[in-house]
Amino acid sequence: MFEPVILPDGSRFETWEVPLSFTRTFHVAQNHPRSDDANPGTAELPWKTIGQAARALEPGQRVVVHAGVYREWVKPARGGTDPDAMISYEAAEGEQVTIKGSDLWKSKWERARFYAPEGVATWQTQLSADMFEGANVFCLPNFPDQGHPDWRIFPTFELRRGQLFIESRPITQVNNPDALKENEDRFWVEDNGMTIHLRLADDADPNDLEFEITTREQVFAPIQRYLNYIRVKGLTMFHAANGVPIPPPQRGLLSATAGHHWIIEDCEIGYANTLGMDLGGQWWSYGKGQMQGFHIIRNNHIHHCGVSAVSAWHNMANEKLLVEDNLVTDCCWMPITDHYESAGIKIHRTEHSVIRRNVVLRTAHCASLWLDGEIFNTRVTGNLFADAAHPAFGHVFLEINQGPNLVDNNVLVNSGGNGFYEHDAERVYLIQNLIANGDDTAVMMRCGDPKRVNPPLENEHRVFANVIAGFPRYIQFPNRTSHSELNLFGERFDRFRDAFLADAAAGEEGTVVDLDAWRDIGFDRRSEVARLSVFFNPDDLTLSIRAPGVSTWPAFDRLPETSAQTTAAVDFLGRAIPPLASPQVVLTHDYFGRQRPTGTIQVGPFLNPPLDGTPFSIDPRKRDL
Predict the structure, then answer these.
(1) Is there a contact between 258 and 223 (Cβ–Cβ < 8 Å)?
(2) In the predicted model, what is the mean pLDDT of residues 407-424?
(3) Is 70 exceeded by the pLDDT of residue 568?
(4) Distance between CA atoms of 69 and 104, rounded to whole angstroms?
(5) N or C: which terminus of the chain has fewer CB atoms within 10 Å of its end residue's CB?
(6) Mapping DSSP to helix (H, G, I), strand (E, B) and coil, where does residue 251 land?
(7) DSSP state of 516
(8) Measured in whole angstroms, how far is the alpha carbon of residue 584 from the centre of its chain?
(9) pLDDT tens profile 70-79
(10) For residues 246 and 279, is the Cβ–Cβ distance under 8 A?
(11) What number of CA atoms fall less than 13 Å from residue 294's CA on the CB side?
């Protein structure tokens, strides 16, 4: 059942989804003794492949896929026409349906004679062109633009898109034969893309093993653009040999191929070479008469994707997206941080959209969430972002927009860099979050870059009623149009950065000041300080908070003014920029969906959490807490 949510401007986010009914149901069952693609697709005479369903389905029809491992690239031939006439691909209830972009592979290996490092056992074998659906993915580099300035900066760009797996365990690809000596379970591809060199753990003989080898660039993706109203439900999809996006097009393991109004729910998506799914325009070109967005991405587990779990490019606005209740783990393992398209969730130009109740864990080389480019009236609420190892910018990153955008009631914990970060943005409202434990600044509002947007967009941010602890620095503001107040700070690190006199063009960031000096210039005069420590347990998604001498979070009578307009109230596209709606309208529930009391503003995302170190669950997908 859809739970309503209020957007920053006070309008109600409405879902377009309606109860589904279908005019006809087909069946795919590869393990059925009579399955055949020449069948009528009934339960008694099912099809053998999902591809046959993709060729046959018409608007208002669905296919139920029964248990099995389907090694194919599903290419829907058509989409639905409206919410009442969708096309649905769904797993049979209670049955495990897996679609893979890989094939089983048992090759004849011989000891390597050339490019063989001394002292270790390396093996080589030949690929054949007929193994692949389409191009030989071991011939394709991750990033084909060799003239791009980043080409030689990131050796990963030179790696090939193909992957090897042993019992679902990925083997690491390296870019030169000498690297095979550095560690076990590695492979290297010769320049011709047809010869693979391999070293296994304990220098094992690969002739005794059966591999899975990626033979397809995508797993579920139309070839034709702009197929709309498609539902994908309950499927497990693994192994895509896709490339690094932008300037090449975004191509996910699962792709809407620039369609709109897709529902992707209850799926597991994993081991994409780069993108788990792409939901936007894929490229800069515009389609005439098309729209973009309106997707519902719900209750999926997306993991081990090299660049991003969810991506959407912004040749048009990604309107009215709903991204909720997803688990994203172990993504962004490809070390291309400065390519600027990596994140657990990386979406451009969201408008009137909601990102809520997601859990994003262990992003390796970039932000957990990155919203980029002309974000408008978008709300990020009730999410858990934890254990980002090396975020280039911050756990959560908002970029290039004039607002209003609201980030509220989230948990950002354990960052190898900043907690919340923005640059070239205005009117970010950061309210009632918990931001704890990081290596840089808890709330980094950067000075704008006049080379990108002139004059720089860095005004009117609001940082209210947050709990902030465990960072060497707490807040940086670019100028005095922004404000912070009613926060709770851990006393160990009460350091702030005064950037008011900074010269952005020269890269100067001002000086670090203490809390007294920060208050002298007008900020956090009513905020409180406490001994505060926060511990997150990733195994069971629990949090422990210790605040000796504090029995409950501070509460205040009201928030300071949030709607000041000191700069132009018209955005890039000439739209009026609305103020943030009244907190009494927007901030009505806590992280767990519990009704907040009226008349007070309590700091942080939780109503009265235990402060004595008692662990409590912070999985936002559990609504019965």
Answers:
(1) no
(2) 96
(3) no
(4) 11
(5) N
(6) coil
(7) H
(8) 30
(9) 999 999 999 9
(10) no
(11) 19
